[in-house]
Design a protein that fits this description.
Blueprint: E1 18-23, E2 29-33, E3 39-41, H1 51-62, H2 67-74, H3 78-89
Antiparallel strand pairs: 1-2, 2-3
Length: 91
């Protein structure tokens, strides 16, 4: 695949030395910055999990609700939720 320059800026260093670098799992174009090496997609769909969502997750975990159900209700991935549980509760 030939790397092509595009009109995007790197979110880390703001460089315009950005080229196409394949696609992610849902077909969106992935880019890589030639200056700093950062890989990114334009307009990512993932959003940070809010403190309110984390508080709800903690309450639901205390009720012993399965992780799949919590992930579905709160709107996070099961993978993210498992990592959250491992970090917070495996201290």
């Amino acid at each position: 695949m030939e790397n092509q320059k595009c009109q995007n800026k790197c979110p880390r260093c703001q460089s315009e030395e950005v080229v196409k670098n394949g696609h992610i799992h849902n077909g969106k174009q992935r880019y890589i910055c030639k200056q700093c090496g950062r890989q990114f997609v334009k307009d990512p769909q993932n959003k940070p999990v809010s403190d309110e969502q984390k508080a709800l997750i903690d309450k639901l975990l205390l009720e012993k609700i399965p992780l799949a159900g919590i992930a579905r209700v709160v709107g996070v991935s099961e993978r993210w939720l498992q990592n959250y549980v491992n970090v917070v509760y495996d201290k």
